[in-house]
Amino acid sequence: MVNWVGLYTLCRREVERTIRVATQTLVTPWISALLYIFIFGEVVGRRIDTIAGATYIDFVLPGILMMNVITAAFTHSSSSLHFQRFVRHIEEVLVAPFSHVEMILGFVIGGVLRAVLVGGGVFIIALFFSAATVEHLLLFLFYIISVAIVFALLGVLAGLWAQSFEQLSVMNTFVIMPFTFLGGVFYSIHMLPEKLQVVAYFNPFFYFIDGIRYSMIGIRESNATVGFVVIFTMMISLAIFVEYLFKKGWRLRG
Predict the structure, then answer these.
(1) pLDDT tens, 47-85?
(2) pLDDT digits (tens, 9 = 90+) for 219-240
(3) In the chain, what percentage of residues exceed pLDDT 70?
(4) Gap between the Cα atoms of 113 and 99, Å rounded
(5) What residue spans define the domains of the chain?
(6) DSSP string over 165-210
(7) What angle do CA 213, 215, 220 make, to 5 degrees?
(8) DSSP letters spanning the chain
(9) Is 66:208 a contact under the CB 8 Å cutoff?
(10) Of 28, 77, 36, residue with least CA distance to 59
């Protein structure tokens, strides 16, 4: 039986944490997105021909939006869990009447809500540059929420693994950011040499970016089925693995 009151309390705490430091959690990524859109869309984009029949700013906006969604979801859940471990607050949660699934859901829902707020802000900013369109609303919502869930779960995993706040930045700096930029945020995959195109198809971030690009401007460069399989496989496998680690109490106690 689900402890709905407890789950609501956990989620509210995560949301309040986001709002309490809104300058860091919301305003900073919005300003960063504004600079990306302005520089790559307005300044650089005016000097670049259309890509796959779309203006450059329309082509890069979905990637910029997805990049911010990924970062927001991952950063929220990883920092929240790690900080609770650091101050030993997690021990109070462990003795409370919550199941492991409910605890994980609290972190994941908090990360998803932050990602949605950040992504919504980026979309609104893009409206001022006439660059925000959505051709397939349901797919747009699916990619935003599902990818946010994936990286919120990955953030929980990082929050368990990290032994210091410095280690939290390792995955973001050396995995998430490189794979995101190599996933076609600012270019079409067909611009790459043929051998590198093959490598790009093994980059899961490519399917996240390409999927939301299709939902926004109707341009797809990947196989939709493969993209769905990648998302659901990562979501299910991460959920099972994180739940297993919580059951084991790995790095949660002591």
Answers:
(1) 777 787 888 888 999 999 999 999 999 999 999 999 998
(2) 999 999 999 999 999 999 999 9
(3) 99
(4) 21
(5) 22-248
(6) HHHHHHHIIIIIHHHHHTTTSSS-GGGS-HHHHHHHTT-HHHHHHH
(7) 55
(8) ---HHHHHHHHHHHHHHHHHTHIIIIIHHHHHHHHHIIIIIIITGGGS--BTTB-HHHHHHHHHHHHHHHHHHHHHHHHHHHHHHHTTTHHHHHHSS--HHHHHHHHHHHHHHHHHHHHHHHHHHHHTTT----S-HHHHHHHHHHHHHHHHHHHHHHHHH-SSHHHHHHHIIIIIHHHHHTTTSSS-GGGS-HHHHHHHTT-HHHHHHHHHHHHHHS---S-HHHHHHHHHHHHHHHHHHHHHHHHHTTTT--
(9) yes
(10) 36
Total residue count of the chain as it appears in this document: 254
Tokens representing residue 63 in the block: 């990637």
Residue 242, token pair as written in the block:
């994180």
Residue type, 153: L
Residue with tokens 């995560």: 14
